[in-house]
Amino acid sequence: MKKSSxxxxxxxxxxxxxxxxxxADSIIDAFFRSHKYLGSHDRRFIAETVYGMLRHKTRLxxxxxxxxxxxxxxxGVYPSLLVCFVYxxxxxxxxxxxxxxxxxxxxxxxxxxxxxLAEAKxxxxxxxxxxxxxxxxxxxxxxxxxxxxxxIEMWLAQYGETETAALCAALNLPAPLTVRVNxxxxxxxxxxxxxxxxxxxxxxxxxxxxxLNLLRRMNVFGLEAFKAGYFEVQDEGSQLVSLLVDPKxxxxxxxxxAGGGGKSLALAALMKNRGTLxxxxxxxxxxxxxxxxxxxxxxxxxxxxxxxxxxLPDDLIGAADNVLVDAPCSGLGTIRRNPGIKWTVTPETxxxxxxxxxxxxxxxxxxxxxxxxxVYATCTTMKQExxxxxxxxxxxxxxxxxxxxxxxxxxxxxxxxxxEKYFRLKPHVHGTDGFFAAVMKRKDLATSK
Length: 449
Prior knowledge:
By secondary structure, the chain is of the alpha/beta class. The protein is 49% helix and 14% strand. The protein has three domains: 3-130, N-utilizing Substance Protein B Homolog, Chain A (Orthogonal Bundle); 177-233, Sun protein, domain 3 (Alpha-Beta Plaits), CATH 3.30.70; 236-448, 3-Layer(aba) Sandwich (Rossmann fold), CATH 3.40.50. It is built from 21 helices and twelve strands. It is globular and about 75 Å long. The model is unreliable at 70-76 (pLDDT under 50).
């Protein structure tokens, strides 16, 4: 396909993301399904360019604004198209004049586009000096790493300037393709060999004992090893959260917000396909996807239950040895794979989720039996959704106490991942998505009296 056509498709997909409510990856997948004539190279160009535009949006728009103020004329071109051009020049390394040869611009656009692109490229090369006299740290980081100003301000309050910059830089990198070996069917070595038989190179994950990193990005869902249920695509951090639940093979476990069921399947494998695991969710449609994954996995201990909000099944109250509350959250720890989240989450979103998370935690704590464990987990980096939720919960539930996550992780020689009372994974430190977890135990009050 001509580059001009590819750029047109890219801009169309980019605009759909801001008009829709679904994650960027879901919208791009739907876009490709509705444009079946696109070849693999076309799809790769479009996806990589759209994700790049999302990752660098603030910086690109700042460069366009500054370049326009240098007397090059107010852009009359469609704004998203200009963002695409500046991305291709500033980040992807295309030459402005060469790029414009592939684009059939009208005469009015041709008057200012070359100058705008040349000025943007020049300003990008000297971005650091543009802020050398600006003492607004948040504003500088917001432009340099392309994150909303409010998000930067929250991270600065939590982490300080150096770590915030490192976090932003890591979140702007593409995530690796990581899978969790389904040990119900294959051990890690055997699964790795099955992938090698299909010419797929892998390496062991850095932390997860069941994780493999694929050395190149590809559509794994067409692989025979996937169809046979030997692995599931799952970020390494998500795999580690499942370890913290620490389920016993004979236990009764509740996955309270099961969703697509990645952690349910991981927990069932840890339980060696024994015991009973209840996968609950208020979204029945998402649980339909889990049922398909269960059939492929060979697991037969998961009981899938759609439930109504604020209406727990009576048979689960006070009955579970382990309860995982993988709470709905802003997902800011997953920006590497879904950069569009940057532009959909707001401070109001965080505040609303905080209240929802506390409510869900209150509700599902009722399932934990005496001496049972409750694990609260999120894939966000915001304190308001993490520590603040747990501390407020404990304030109102003295029957629960925090446990040291390192005690559980020491069984896998991973105690260094949780040196404090909470479990935190940071993209810039651990190379995983951002995760948080707290492990709590319900006291046996009758015994303690």
